[in-house]
């Protein structure tokens, strides 16, 4: 399959594993099941596993990827959509093997763009080893996400790739004036209720992972799940 990636960064897997040791598992991973990608510009071929980040515009996909890396490589904005294509950050594992983190455009920006973006999603889904569907914990409206799931993620082999990640948990009520790394007891109660709601709406194959990219809470759990799903394909 011919897919186009816009490579914003080339680094080493140690950039990720120093922050989240789970990524070190890619070094000893079985070499079967890797996807071949040809860099048309350089005329070179690579074997890689790709982790895609999808979801509604403004839900924090790029922020989540930046939190995994520890640097603001992907552009983010509180007022406008930033991602227009699949922006990828590639990390060398060894020999010709690479891990790619792909940030896809956010849906829900406009009906016209959704048609374009959903086609882009579909092109990448069968190629990806794991798909992180980013949701917000501080919202009740999942209509756009539900529509995308019904349209694109019905086949069992795709459902097994999807990790529902419930972000922005630091913004769940009751919000305190001080930014704590971990949610308060009251927030945890409401996060648990939100997890049940998301589970009911999306019927996920894997447990929903709550986290906060801003404070770093539960990012290690999210990274562990990403690695587990990506290597189980």
Which properties best describe this structure?
233 residues; alpha/beta; eight-stranded mixed β-sheet
Give the arrangement of secondary structure elements.
Blueprint: E1 6-12, H1 14-17, E2 35-39, E3 44-55, H2 61-69, E4 87-94, E5 97-103, H3 111-125, E6 130-136, H4 143-152, H5 156-159, E7 162-167, H6 185-202, E8 209-210, H7 219-232
Parallel strand pairs: 1-4, 3-5, 3-6, 6-7, 7-8
Antiparallel strand pairs: 2-3, 4-5
Would you give an account of this structure?
The structure is a single chain. Strands 1, 2, 3, 4, 5, 6, 7 and 8 form an eight-stranded mixed β-sheet that branches. The protein is of the alpha/beta class. The chain is globular, with a radius of gyration of 17 Å. It is 32% helix and 23% strand. The protein has seven helices and eight strands. A hairpin with a 2-residue loop joins β4 and β5 (97-103).
> Can you count the helices?
7
Distance between the termini: 18 Å
Q: C-alpha Rg, in Å?
A: 17 Å
Estimated share of beta-strand residues: 15-25%
Mean pLDDT: 87
The assigned structural class equals alpha/beta
Helix content: 25-40%
Low-pLDDT stretches: 77-82
Element pattern in H and E: EHEEHEEHEHHEHEH
Number of strands: 8
Biggest β-sheet, characterized? Answer: 8 strands, mixed
Shape assignment: globular
